[in-house]
Design a protein that fits this description.
seven-stranded mixed sheet; 12 helices
Length: 470
């Protein structure tokens, strides 16, 4: 008899958690890794086939294991040796698809590892519900199967953006609308001279511009957002501030903002860069977020979040250079304002928006609209069957800031009445409300290691449950 942990979602978060669970849990523990798609180990973020969609973190910081910090770079070097190409440096920005291959490689190695591989089951299917029984759980699959487990971890990743304001619900079926900037058909059957609108100006929009340029698109590329902020570029040269050099950090938002601005100005004056100041906050960001008062967090989300995002989550230098060139040529143009209405116009769409600068109305007529506004985070609005079931049964609830689900510091899911679950946990972007920074690989890696340690301790004292026959 074995205890079973079910991990729902086999993108980076779920796959990495499964690897750490197999290393830390006793031999009587099995892991069922469930994925609705066929591509285990990659997830949406790293499944792109475009080699110019680059990681926004250097290769040297992308290892899946904290105790093996050179693991990804070593894998890249082995790959380069096999095909005769030059090995990238640790400071290089590698394609996201190549990183997805690395994660898939780790999964395959684990499946073949003596003493661990036989405890890992990969199950393709869609989990649409979850039921609690005395001492166990049952995962309801879309095809009617039930998968029993002792513990379950939600590693569901990011959900598609919400429908743009001003668009009626039927817009999702219009030939000119695409809800996913990375889907294979997002830019298919598009005239090379046709105007395109990307809603949003974040990293998803950057990917969209790169995809269009790679496809030889000649027409205008518009981007529209409320503030018009593009992600900044990484520094052209290295500049590092050691954690020991970081001054005491206040948790009052105004004081913290002043400190960061003052430190950035001082760094630039000394010949360094503001990038180093922002990067120096990385080891302390989660602690700062958790120490902030509720009202301070609300102020940050309302006023400073867009500015933090563009300075914290930056473009790789080669990508930034392409974006800057497209802006300089006039092919890529950023509009700042609020969408008022989206309507059919000929074979495309007309987008009416109010400019932020002067309040005047403007209309863009385009052949295609791509929603790059970022993942949907308000779980009350997410239509995914598993999410709807979790909320309807009261097994989970949205967090007060609508960033994900309400999660404890130990990644346990909180029920509708606030009770802390002893069997349902979460990992990755769904936990953003509790940890704030939970999108980059270094953050998710640390979280997966901590959760695996916690669950290993849980199963060590839990009664066994039979491995599912599926």
């Amino acid at each position: 008899m074995q205890q079973t942990i079910a991990v729902i979602g086999a993108g980076f978060s779920g796959t990495l958690l499964a690897l750490h669970l197999l290393r830390r849990c006793p031999p009587t523990t099995s892991v069922v890794l469930i994925e609705r798609n066929s591509g285990f180990g990659r997830g949406q973020a790293y499944a792109t086939g475009n080699a110019n969609h680059l990681l926004n973190v250097p290769a040297g910081r992308m290892s899946a294991f904290r105790d093996r910090p050179d693991d990804f770079v070593a894998w890249l070097q082995r790959q380069a040796g096999a095909d005769g190409t030059a090995a990238p440096a640790p400071g290089a920005f590698i394609s996201r698809g190549l990183f997805g291959n690395y994660v898939r490689h780790l999964l395959e190695v684990e499946r073949q590892a003596p003493g661990r591989g036989e405890r890992l089951l990969l199950l393709q299917g869609d989990v649409v519900g979850l039921r609690k029984h005395p001492g166990s759980l049952a995962l309801l699959m879309a095809d009617g199967r039930e998968v029993p487990a002792g513990l379950a971890v939600l590693a569901v990743g990011n959900f598609p953006p919400e429908l743009p304001p001003g668009a009626d619900p039927g817009a999702v079926d219009r030939p000119w609308y695409r809800p996913d900037p990375w889907a294979p058909d997002t830019f298919s059957e598009l005239d090379a001279d046709a105007p395109v609108l990307l809603i949003g100006t974040g990293l998803s929009t950057v990917d969209g511009v790169v995809s269009l340029l790679d496809a030889g698109h000649r027409g205008p590329i518009h981007a529209l957002s409320r503030r018009g902020l593009l992600p900044r570029s990484h520094a052209r040269r290295a500049d590092v501030i050691l954690p020991s050099q970081v001054p005491p950090l206040p948790t009052a938002l105004s004081a913290l903002t002043r400190l960061v601005r003052d430190q950035a100005r001082r760094r630039v004056t000394q010949g360094g860069s503001w990038h180093a100041v922002v990067d120096a906050l990385r080891p302390f960001t989660q602690e700062l977020w958790q120490a902030m008062a509720h009202d301070e967090k609300a102020r940050f989300l309302r006023h400073l979040r867009p500015w933090w995002d563009v300075h914290r989550h930056r473009m790789a230098v080669p990508v930034a250079e392409r974006i800057e060139a497209a802006l300089a040529s006039g092919q890529f143009r950023i509009h700042v304002g609020r969408i008022r209405q989206i309507r059919d116009e000929g074979d495309g769409a007309a987008v009416d928006f109010r400019r932020r600068a002067d309040g005047q109305e403007e209309t863009l007529t385009v052949a295609r609209i791509v929603n790059c506004a970022g993942p949907g985070c308000d779980y009350d609005r997410i239509r995914d069957p598993l999410v709807r079931d979790l909320l309807a049964t009261g097994h989970a609830r949205p967090d007060p800031f609508r960033l994900g689900l309400d999660i404890t510091g130990a990644c346990a899911v909180r029920a509708a009445d606030g009770a802390i679950s002893r069997r349902i946990f979460a990992v990755g972007p769904v936990t953003k409300a509790a940890f704030w920074e939970m999108t980059a690989v270094p953050d998710i890696r640390r979280q997966c290691e901590a959760l695996a340690e916690h669950l290993a301790a849980v199963v060590a004292v839990s009664p066994p449950l039979a491995v599912p026959a599926v």
